[in-house]
Design brief:
By secondary structure, the protein is an all-alpha fold. It is 69% helix and 0% strand.
């Protein structure tokens, strides 16, 4: 750790690059899927774009740098434009975390290709180390973003999925929960003992996902 930062100063430039790429793809996936399913709200706001500047949220990025958790600007979605509002709403919401999962798989696949064909062997140590560091961060951060965004607390994607899944009779109960959820979440993130028994064990699921990806990739590549 680098002082107040979750990441140390040596890795910070790589972290920022990975965050820009990962957040941009995540939010683009929300916007693009909504547009394809019949809602042009995000399109009108210029969010069906791979331009990072339309997606990044300053406070969410700062939170990720100092706490290891963060977010980008929410994509505006009008579910009234969908033929099947709740189902399409779930698809659009899930598109963001799934995009991070896909990025993690692609990253691990690329890393396996480097190993299989020895592409790093002819590079200088500095260049090789930089590529490996970037790929490791790309893998780990995207797995974390995938799991983190599925937590059912507003404004995260997991909560939006719950809203579309539960019976409409419980909407008032959910609204009451929203008032306290953000406070509870911040306490869990910043109070280390709480984090160690809640978020940290949950995020370790990422190790199992990476192991399963590795099995699939080594089978495909015959390693």
């Amino acid at each position: 750790m680098g002082g107040l930062l979750f990441y140390d100063w040596n890795t910070l430039p790589f972290v920022i690059l990975v965050l820009v790429l990962s957040f941009t793809i995540h939010e683009w996936a929300h916007a693009y899927s909504a547009y394809k399913l019949g809602d042009d709200t995000a399109y009108k706001f210029g969010r069906v774009s791979l331009n990072p500047m339309v997606h990044l949220d300053l406070f969410g990025t700062i939170m990720l740098l100092i706490a290891g958790f963060g977010w980008a600007k929410p994509v505006p979605v009008n579910r009234g434009n969908f033929k099947r509002p709740r189902l399409f709403g779930i698809i659009v919401t899930a598109a963001g975390p799934i995009s991070n999962l896909v990025l993690a798989f692609i990253t691990l696949f690329v890393f396996a290709l480097f190993q299989k064909y020895g592409w790093l062997d002819g590079m200088s140590k500095g260049s090789g180390d930089a590529i490996v560091l970037f790929l490791k961060l790309m893998l780990n951060i995207n797995i974390t973003l995938f799991l983190f965004n599925l937590i059912p607390i507003p404004p995260l994607d997991g909560y939006r999925i719950i809203q579309d899944l539960v019976d409409l009779r419980y909407s008032e109960t959910l609204q009451k929960f929203e008032q306290w959820a953000s406070v509870i979440f911040l306490l869990v993130v910043f109070i280390r003992p709480l984090r160690q028994v809640t978020l940290d064990p949950y995020l370790r699921i990422g190790d199992d996902i990476i192991n399963q990806f590795a099995i699939v990739i080594t089978t495909i590549l015959g390693m």
